[in-house]
Amino acid sequence: MKTPIALALPLSLFVLSACGGGGGASSSDAFADACEASTNMPREVCECAAEKALAELEPDAVTFLVAMMNEETDRAEELREKLGVTEAVQAGMFMASGPARCAQEMGVEE
């Protein structure tokens, strides 16, 4: 069985519960590091997700996701207030689908 949904669901629920964001630290390495540290996803999936996030989301939304994954609550709240509803929803939806798409594309299995 492939892991996309199994890996993405816990993180997506976490991100969606916070629902917000925005900032500027749109570094691929920062995203991949935060992803790897806060999830059970392999580094290669986190790197792929970072690239997809940078391509699909506004920089503030990427920064918000990094803050959320790093459990930087105050920073995430600050960023959340800057994001519009659409950007916040897109960020949450990305975390529900982006890493899963990467895992599926890479054939990562449980």
Short description:
The chain has 110 residues and is mainly α. The chain is built from 6 helices and no strands.
What can you see in these coordinates?
- The protein has 110 residues and is mainly alpha-helical.
- It has one domain (23-106).
- The chain is built from 6 helices and no strands.
- Helix 1 runs antiparallel to helix 6 (85-106) and helix 2 packs across helix 3.
- It is globular, with a radius of gyration of 12 Å.
- 43% of the residues are buried.
- The model is unreliable at 1-26 (pLDDT under 50).
Gyration radius from CA atoms, angstroms? 12 Å
Shape, please? Answer: globular
The amount of helix comes to: over 70%
Total strand segments: 0
User: How many strands, which pairing sense, and closed or not: the largest β-sheet?
Assistant: none
Question: How much beta, percentage-wise?
Answer: under 5%
Furnish the topology, listing elements before pairings.
Elements: H1 4-18, H2 28-38, H3 43-56, H4 59-69, H5 73-82, H6 85-106
Helix pairs in contact: 1-6, 2-3, 2-4, 3-6, 4-5, 4-6
